[in-house]
Write a structure and sequence with these properties.
This protein has about 110 residues and is an alpha/beta fold. The chain has three helices and five strands; from the N terminus they run E-E-E-H-E-H-E-H.
Length: about 110
């Protein structure tokens, strides 16, 4: 099992937002465990980690406590591409559901 660990820091004003990414390669695929705040500034790095992984990828959000709308849309896109998104807080899952419903309704209009 390989472990890759790196931190993504984004400065916005005076606040530094940190996201820790642990990439665990094993059987039956790769688990990418995220910790901290998942925001727009971090999505490219997470996307790169997903692309560099085995075909079967799981995003583990157990330690993610804050997301923004861009992160919610990113997570929905990941699921649509077959990435499992697990262990997220109920508010994140609900926001993902609501955003999918909103997008589906706007496509029908």
């Amino acid at each position: 099992m390989a472990l890759f660990l790196h931190f993504v820091m984004a400065c916005t004003g005076l606040k530094v937002m940190t996201l820790k990414i642990k990439q665990l390669s094993g059987n039956p695929g790769t688990r990418i465990r995220l910790s901290g705040e998942l925001r727009f500034e971090h999505l490219q790095e997470v996307g790169t980690a997903i692309q560099g992984s085995d075909p079967r990828v799981t995003l583990d959000l157990e330690e993610v406590d804050l997301v923004d709308i861009d992160a919610v849309r990113f997570l929905n896109a990941c699921e649509a591409q077959g990435v499992d998104v697990v262990n997220c807080l109920p508010y994140i899952r609900e926001w993902m559901f609501q955003e999918r419903a909103r997008e589906n309704n706007s496509e029908r209009s």
